[in-house]
Amino acid sequence: MTSMAEQPREPRFEKSYRDERVIDGVPVGRFWDIGGPQPAVRELVAHGALRGEVLDPGTGPGHNAIYFASQGYATTGVDDSPAAIELARRNAREADVKVDFEVADATSLQGMEGRFDTVVDSALYHIFAFDESAQVRYAQALHRATRPGARCYLFAFGSHNINGLVLPSVLTQETFERVLPAAGWRVDYIGPSSYICHLNVEVLDATPDQHPADHPATKALRHRLTVLEPLLEKNPVHIPVWSVHATRVD
Predict the structure, then answer these.
(1) Contacts of 19 (CB under 8 A, 6+ apart)
(2) pLDDT tens column, 79-130
(3) pLDDT digits over 13-58, tens only?
């Protein structure tokens, strides 16, 4: 019999993707899911930044991967949450688009060595914000999974201020400048950008496992959202993210 200590750990966001509650038609457990690709991600495609085979690590509901595939790119989306991959595959079927969705650990990407020419990390990196060793493993895994000269476009929660909204974040520009080169990536650009999210006080209160009510960061975010919500008229809120561009070096 397997002991409790030996039981496999549930993927971090498995519960979020199994959560069927909605607020104003939006999934409660994943406030980042806007039902399609983020504008910042669509912009990459519009500017011709992608090439060859594309990897979407932390694909979640698969919207970005589905968009890439719809634009003619051979795309693979990975997530360690089986529920997320189940949802992504369903979304791909509904969009009538072919994407290779796989359950996989992004910090190892075992069996994917030398496959990809482009990586688009849409809000995965920051889940390792409190564990720099995990950041390094992740960056190294991306290096192994890509071909020489590959490009990596990375979006992660930022520490800047957008219209009074500041996220609890420990990721700084220096973090990327330290971690990525050590894993074989040349940092070409780091700058502020934004994502659209369905984040409000009701969502915070409905997800105490993600946003503990007694945590100082949650309290500060709740206060800011309380002030901003009357001005937003229930529109999605823009949140700060870093936009990082890097090139694989050997």
Answers:
(1) 27, 28, 29, 30
(2) 999 999 999 999 999 999 999 999 999 999 999 999 999 999 999 999 998 8
(3) 888 888 888 877 778 778 889 999 999 999 999 999 999 999 999 9
Residues in the chain: 250
Distance CA 51, CA 49 (A): 7
pTM of the model: 0.89
Q: What is the 3-state secondary structure (H, E, C) of the chain?
A: CCCHHHCCCCCCCHHHHHCCCEECCEECCCCCCCCCCCHHHHHHHHCCCCCCCEEEECCCCCHHHHHHHHCCCCEEEEECCHHHHHHHHHHHHHHCCCCEEEECCCCCCCCCCCCEEEEEEECCHHHHCCCHHHHHHHHHHHHHHEEEEEEEEEEEECCCCECCECCCCCCCHHHHHHHHHHCCEEEEEEEEEEEEECCCHHHHHHCCCCCCCCCHHHHHHHHHHHHHHHHHCCCCEEEEEEEEEEEECC
